[in-house]
Protein: Aluminum-activated malate transporter like
Organism: Actinidia chinensis var. chinensis
Amino acid sequence: MMPQMHLSLSLSLSPIKIFDPNSLAMENESKTHEKTGFITRSWDRFKALPGNIKAKAVEIAKKTKKIGKDDPRRITHSLKVALALTLVSLFYYFKPLYDGFGSSSMWAVLTVVVVFEFTVGATLYKCMNRGFATFLAGTLGVGANYLTSLLGEEGEPIALGFLVFILTATCTFSRFFPTIKARYEYGVLIFILTFSLVSVSGYRVDKIIELAHQRLSTIMLGAAICMIISIFVCPVWAGEDLHNLVANNIEKLASFLEGFGGEYFRVLEDGDSDMVTKKDKSFLQGYKTVLNTKTTEESWANFAWWEPGHGNFGFHHPWKLYLQIGVLTRKCAFHFEALSCYIHSDIQATPEFLRKIQEPCKKMSLESGKALKELSLAIKAMTHPFSADAHLANSKTAITDLKTSLEAASGETSTDLIKIIPAVTVASILTDITKCVEEIAEVVRELSQEAHFKRVEKIVSKEKPPLIDRRSVNPVGDGGGEHVVIEVHGVLLESSENENPQAPKKG
Amino acid sequence: MMPQMHLSLSLSLSPIKIFDPNSLAMENESKTHEKTGFITRSWDRFKALPGNIKAKAVEIAKKTKKIGKDDPRRITHSLKVALALTLVSLFYYFKPLYDGFGSSSMWAVLTVVVVFEFTVGATLYKCMNRGFATFLAGTLGVGANYLTSLLGEEGEPIALGFLVFILTATCTFSRFFPTIKARYEYGVLIFILTFSLVSVSGYRVDKIIELAHQRLSTIMLGAAICMIISIFVCPVWAGEDLHNLVANNIEKLASFLEGFGGEYFRVLEDGDSDMVTKKDKSFLQGYKTVLNTKTTEESWANFAWWEPGHGNFGFHHPWKLYLQIGVLTRKCAFHFEALSCYIHSDIQATPEFLRKIQEPCKKMSLESGKALKELSLAIKAMTHPFSADAHLANSKTAITDLKTSLEAASGETSTDLIKIIPAVTVASILTDITKCVEEIAEVVRELSQEAHFKRVEKIVSKEKPPLIDRRSVNPVGDGGGEHVVIEVHGVLLESSENENPQAPKKG
């Protein structure tokens, strides 16, 4: 839906429309054909103009408010950029060395405008790339200038042109390498730019060195202001955003799974299905945003790589594991997409059959959802995801229960195969999802190890079933057993802490 | 898999590694602890260095070759950029007006480097944005300069600083609007840049106007060279790329579906399953690239919007329909993801049961695949997708057949329900996919209407079953009927052409 909205919106805002030859042609046509009609309509339109403008203004104001509300850091970011630029501008306005438009002062302004990005990582990426590339290309350019000057008046431009051609072609091609594209693309651009500027400048080498020094220092001033403001004034960390995005995506999956069982089997509940339908169903749609987060995750992971250690995120935080979790989350969401076809299908199966599989299916869905929620909470709090294990075990038990129920069902039946197909498919896809959730839990566990998450046992887990595989044991009957196992769990936890002394690192 | 590869590769190529404090620390440690061991290891490493460098060089050469081979237009693009930059450089090198580094000459070089993008659309987007924004911001900047100069020596910098702050904050915030982000982000950047440069330049207005004229003309020279080379030397059209991407994605789905039936039911074939397993299975993986094309499609659609009409693509080509097709293709691919879990599962169902559903399932998969292939071919050839209709009808028939088979199966059985679950799930998901394929066909039909695709009846379609819904009729028995319907189809085609005279537009 989004892309179409984009397009239609942009068409309505497009300044190109003013020059649209088609609309002019249309107006001309109507002029000749029905002049009075045209005048009336134009007059109507003119009279409606203030109203239209007002409506448009209100619409834009509403949108502005929404964008600001969705992420208030956007407002802070705008103010930060404005602050950096004003500082640089005024600095040069008052500076006695200042000698007007075209001087090196502009490089500071240019740097701030081009380099200041939303996240710290992106800003650092651009600053570093710009700094290194300018330095490298400047040095090479001076060298090239010196060498080609030995060839005399005639040979110099040809040799320089040749050099520029070769270097530009090579550098441009190198931008297609995925590695370079992800991490050094901007640097390559600045490299080409600086090299060609220096090499065609035609100055003598000593003059160039003076200029280069001036330019580098102004660029560094601009970059320094950007970095300082970016890092110290309400910083937006790409790594933190990635961390939260991954945790939130898992939570969205959790909400879907927790709600799905109840939603699918709702017709079985005592008659008040209408009331349930009126409930907020947004949890069933939330996972859809997870489907297309690959690009965002990858770029944030790239930016996070540039960020210094901050808060709970060390310099060598395992960002690539977030990408792995992202891949698995999306895989899970793909299954949801297949599953969601069945939510609003008319369940044709006999209530008897549905009742048989309802319990294990609901349990499977609910427990997988709970496991995901625990994983999400653990990521958010940066603690070890122990509390998810019990839910994972429960969902495994539910798979076994489902098998038992189905065996029982197939023994007695003359069930009509066609009618039970949707329900059976749902159960089958749910089983696959349970496996997916386990994979996610596996990588989250790896993340918690590598990123040295805190090893705290949550109090909540005491209310939950134990870690052991209980299969056909009824969860209601063994409250005493629970207690014992939790103690065992606690002991295990203690010992693993002792084995691995550097692991428990507090934020 | 890709993201991890990216990261590990970039780490191995990263220049940051040279300055890695950790690795230095580690080396220091080993130095103190076991000096001889360190020396030996260093010497070994040093001896191995030429070999390592050679291996690295070979690896890079291989990668370069692969990148060039994957899309030879990348090589052309690199040469085009180099050509444009060399032209501009030399132009300024020889130009008598030329007065060295820092003059307005650099703006042409800067423009070429920054503006030249891979596709025509992206280049035009940047050129247009740069041109308009520079003009607008320049005008505003001159006005601001004039007005603030009335405030006197003291008030001017404060008023200017205030103006720069307000404008920068507003413009930066406006970049968060999806519409502006998609189409005018670069322009906003250039607007901020030019405005602050002009307003803090401190020149008198007449001097600024002279400079602005000089700068605009150099920017226009750079932009013009970029646009000319981009459009006339081996152009890469974003619209054409989008068109091909969408068609290829549909083809990938088609290959999967055409192969899936045979692959899933292969164990039933007479024993030689090993031989089949050795076959090339890439068709089963091809759809995976479809899952994550959203970002690419959207950016290409945005760039395509800037491109002038070319070849078969008019100025008002309905690019947004490609995005719709993209959404549906991905939806279909999500189902494949759910389906692919079952490809390598051990089919536990009894061969009798499998044989019953094998025929309709295979047919459903094959015919949906063929329909998609026809749609893909129709898009590629820009013809109306009539030939897909017969296959769609066939796949619908197969759904009915499946129902019949299942009814028969459920009548006779004492089938073990658990054992048939995977097979039944596959059948059920295939049914959903068939519906997805129909949706895709619907939008492709709409596209063929709006984009005025050619209305040619392919000769191939004579070999195919007719359009009518034949449900339980055996496709073998009514060759005569086929002929009649094709004639009817042809008549319908003729009449619709007459009704809609502007529709048949040749490339």
User: Anything to note?
Assistant: Chain B has two domains: 72-232, 238-267+284-451.
